[in-house]
Amino acid sequence: MKNQTSTVSTLNAGYHLAFGVGAGLLVTAVIVGFIMLRSGPAGPPQPTQVEEAANAAQS
User: Which keywords accompany this UniProt record (predicted)?
Assistant: First the structure.
């Protein structure tokens, strides 16, 4: 009977650990999402060197 109690306790501790890890990841995702949304758009994309060379060749 003692072995069964130990097994149940171990399984319960494992579920608590998994819940804690999941909650930590959720909090991290919310913080990263908030930071990314607060920074706003970076502005219009800049032309690459290939596009500049193509535009110069057409001119």
Answer: Membrane, Transmembrane, Transmembrane helix
